[in-house]
Amino acid sequence: MDQTRSVYEIAVEQFDNAARYVDIRPDIAEMLRKPKREVIVNFPVRMDDGSVRIFTGYRVQHNIAVGPSKGGIRFHPDVTLDEVRALAMWMTWKCSVVDLPFGGGKGGVICDPKQLSMGELERITRRYATEIACMIGPMSDIPAPDVNTTPQIMAWIMDTYAMHSGAQAFPVVTGKPVELGGSLGRNEATGRGVMITAIEALESQGIPIEGAKVSVQGFGNVGSTAAYLLQDEGARIVAVSDSQGGIYNPDGLDVRDVIRHKQATHSVTGYPGTRPVVNAELLELPCDLLVPAALEGVIHAGNAPNIKARVIAEGANGPMTPEADEILFKRGVMVVPDILANAGGVTVSYFEWVQALQSFYWSLEEVNGHLYKHVTRSFDQVMAISREKQVNLRVAAYIKAIARVAKAIELRGIYP
Ligand code: NAD
């Protein structure tokens, strides 16, 4: 983990690295370096034992020039305002790079869901939703799940918002249960986008997916889904890991069986017929494709020279420092940046919002078909920019994303 700069400072650095290639007014660039609006809330919640605990939460809107802000809510003991700011800014670029009519937002509550009962989790969620109700809304700011937040939590947020407004409010959040207006395919969408972009990248490097060796760090929603979808396409998943550690078998794992093992034992570790690996080692194993799908800052100047993968698809948000980016670009490793590789989730969130606004729901085939078209079109556009400007895919993706948002700000003008 990079200790010298905060995650938000890294996000600003990534913006600056790309903004110099864009014809952008200096005042607009300055506007985009800072979030538009940030709210800190401290709120009491009654715990099961009768005591009252004060929780802290955040909601940040980075930019809303092209549409309402959109971004997940994270429940984690290490959530900070700085991290939420960075994640909100990344959401602006992510929505822009795949041409969604959304700006970027993010939220979080400092808590450890593993230590909470369902009742406590519900009361925290409903009170946090009430505290940020002044910001969220179907046409202003639309939350979604992120680390440790689930469709059930989205249902509670939607219900709380609806109780306060006295009207149904299905489009106020995405990632809801399908029974409450959630979209088919949303649960798999981020991993599916990782799979699609990873295959495009491998093919551009002349590496067929059939038999390609893949390591996946993080075996939650994104990592495990990407792993089994890649396996379905013919890839050989040789290593996976979670917070407890990793497992390695150069002959390949049966991903769906590893999922069953994790469901039964709460970890991938101890899966029969594998060698244990620690998370740092997993990143450096011999493979064609590496998918970091856990935390920020795991690939840095210290380990980038040792990475053997020829393609990296960033399932997680911000898994790589700018130094690592540069080292890997020079070494010819293709990195599909987070704002493109994991944009499948927000793309299907957009489909969910559209379906909820129209109360007209699509089949799974329609959802996956639109997702495929959206993601591959954006991938091709980013590749073209990368070739034309001779920059890596991250800078190319940022160029596309920043240019669209900057133009929208210019056209809207400065109020008043
Ligand atoms: P999740 O909570 O479902 O899974 C996270 C996984 O990472 C778990 O398996 C956990 O055990 C593992 N992990 C935690 N600490 C680890 C460590 N030190 N080393 C290795 N593994 C570790 O979360 P998720 O929804 O899969 O999100 C993962 C990443 O993807 C996050 O960066 C998130 O912001 C990003 N992301 C998620 C979505 C989405 O739709 N879920 C969309 C875009 C981006």
Provide an overview of this structure.
With 416 residues, this protein is of the alpha/beta class. Helix content is 45%, strand content 17%. The chain is built from 14 helices and 12 strands. It has helices spanning 7-19, 26-33, 81-97, 118-131, 151-165, 186-204, 221-232, 255-265, 279-283, 322-330, 338-341, 344-358, 364-389, 393-412; strands spanning 37-46, 52-63, 69-75, 103-109, 141-145, 213-217, 236-242, 245-248, 275-277, 289-292, 311-313, 334-336. Strands 9-8-7-6-10-11-12 form a 7-stranded mixed sheet, with helices on both faces. The chain has a 5-stranded mixed sheet with strand order 1-2-4-3-5. Strand 11, helix 10 and strand 12 (334-336) form a beta-alpha-beta unit. Helix 1 crosses helix 14 (393-412), helix 3 crosses helix 14 and helix 12 crosses helix 13 (364-389). The mean pLDDT is 96.
Strand order of the largest sheet: 9-8-7-6-10-11-12
Instruction: Note the overall shape.
Output: globular
Mean pLDDT across the residues is 96
Order of helices and strands: HHEEEHEHEHHEHEEHEHEEHEHHHH
What is the number of E strands? 12
Bound ligands, each once: nicotinamide-adenine-dinucleotide
* Low-confidence runs of at least 5 consecutive residues: none
Query: How far apart, in Å, are the first and last alpha carbons?
Result: 43 Å
